[in-house]
Amino acid sequence: MSDKREGKGFAAGPPQGEIRTLGGQRSTRSDKRGGDIILEVRDLHVEFPTAAGPARAVDGVSFTLDKGMRLGLVGESGSGKSTTVLALMQLIKAPGRISAGTARLAGDDLLAMTAQQIRKARFSRIALVPQGAMNSLNPVLTVRAQIDDLLDAHQQKPDPKERASHVASLLQRVGLAATVANQYPHQLSGGMKQRVCIAIAIALSPQLIIADEPTSALDVIVQKQVMQTLIHAQKEIGAAIILVGHDMGLMAQFAHVVGVMYAGRLVEIAPVKEIFANPRHPYTRMLISSLPSFATRKVFRGIPGVAPSIVNPPSGCAFHPRCPRAEERCAREVPIDDVISAGHHVRCHFARELAPAADTGAALA
Ligand code: SF4
């Protein structure tokens, strides 16, 4: 979320009282400044040309992410969360384009890198665990060949013995037998394929892992196993993670910090306990209220209406046509970044007037 007025963005730091996991980190420019920030995104804009004008898929997103932290980005389809993270890897397909912004990974602007530089940075500094393991693995190559491909591209582990041992170690680190290296994707279950994708993502020990809905096609048991594998692998290499998803329950279990996106903007971000105990944006409240709860056994409440057009978004606060709290001012003024407490930022005119919600903590149980 950008804040041109105050020059501040949202900070995805650790929840209060949490000890940071910093082991195994490489030296960075941020280190030299004495800070713990690994990623700093400022005023990111991504747009796609259409006959009706530019579709602003990402509209001024800013946040920072500390080393070793896990940031969850949630929102409806079309809210801009996947586009935000794909932009960090310069993976926006033409005619889409990054029209403004910076994204500094350990001080180096990913968005200003040349094609050659970003190719080198992919997987060695910023890696992607894609949404569909079924579609992202090559069906005619063994797992070993696909890991080899990555290591060859980055000229790593040229010695055959060392490479074989590295591949076996990678697979074991994600809970797979070393023999899986000799199998083809069609011989693996969905959960195993997703673990292979995690193994590929950590193969070069990147500083940042992006996981774009990595468990969306899996059942809940396998989902949990894959998430545990991802956390374990992340801790081993000391990387930060951005997890993109729809599932607030999953975010409650996984993320240190949760950011909520709507119509291309980051509308709320806070440490996970804070955002579930004290959500201040009506949209966040409605997302949390839609979670099932054994404690209250309440009737499900959906969010009325549909996601707005990003070509002609509603004036003022883009959520106002669907917001139960909206007033006349909401259609006129774009809400600014309001800092409710340390690390808790909200873009709503009435964020300070909304009382803490009573029944939103169930997902954290
Ligand atoms: Fe609702 Fe107004 Fe707040 Fe937007 S600014 S979320 S419309 S109350």
Question: Could you please describe the fold and organization of this structure?
Answer:
The two termini are about 30 Å apart. The protein has helices spanning about 30-35, 80-90, 115-120, 135, 145-155, 160-175, 190-200, 220-235, 250-255, 270-275, 280-290, and strands at about 10, 35-50, 55-65, 70-75, 95-105, 110, 125-130, 210, 240-245, 255-260, 265-270, 340, 345. Helix 7 runs parallel beside helix 8 (about 220-235). The radius of gyration is 21 Å and the shape is globular. It has two domains: about 1-125 and about 205-365, P-loop containing nucleotide triphosphate hydrolases (Rossmann fold, 3-Layer(aba) Sandwich), CATH 3.40.50.300; about 140-205, no CATH class. The strands form two sheets. An eight-stranded mixed β-sheet has the order 7-8-9-4-10-11-13-12, with helices on both faces. A five-stranded mixed β-sheet has the order 1-3-2-5-6. With about 375 residues, it is an alpha/beta fold. Bound molecules: iron/sulfur cluster. Iron/sulfur cluster binds near residues 281, 330 and 348.
Radius of gyration over alpha carbons?
21 Å
CATH topology of the largest domain: Rossmann fold
Euclidean distance between termini CA atoms: 29 Å
How many DSSP H or I helices? 11
What order do the strands of the largest sheet run in, or round the barrel if closed?
Answer: 7-8-9-4-10-11-13-12
Features:
Rossmann fold; 365 residues; 21% strand; binds iron/sulfur cluster; alpha/beta; 13 strands
Brief summary of the model shown:
The chain has helices spanning 29-33, 81-88, 115-121, 133-136, 143-153, 160-173, 190-202, 220-237, 248-254, 272-277, 282-289; strands at residues 10-12, 37-48, 55-66, 70-74, 97-105, 108-109, 126-129, 208-212, 240-245, 257-262, 265-271, 338-341, 344-346.
